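Hi, here's the filled form for the chain we discussed.

Project: internal
Contact: R.S.
Residues: 109
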Amino acid sequence: MELTELVNPKHTVVVTMEVQRGVVGDLSSFPDLQSAAENSGVLSNGPSICAAARAQSVRVLHAVATKNDCLIVLSTSGKSKNILKVLKFSKKLKIKSIAFLGYKSNKLK
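And the returned structure, exactly as it came back:
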């Protein structure tokens, strides 16, 4: 199956994130993210996915965050370890956060 059969380049974008050692490598603050990136094949297949997307005129966007950005998270429970970790990390980097939660009883403060 061809990529153009799956997605329309006019309204599709591949979003990438930083994958250096401090994010998903041996220096990562998020060991779960590191494991997920390794086990899912994102690290080994990411370059070929981006190359295939570009070959089909699909935009590739590299996402980064700075202290002037705002992180928006969606969580049904507000108890997901990954959500809690990324919010804690963004607070440390002085990145503003907005959380949309499905339940009142959550671990976010």
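Let me know if anything looks off before we file it.
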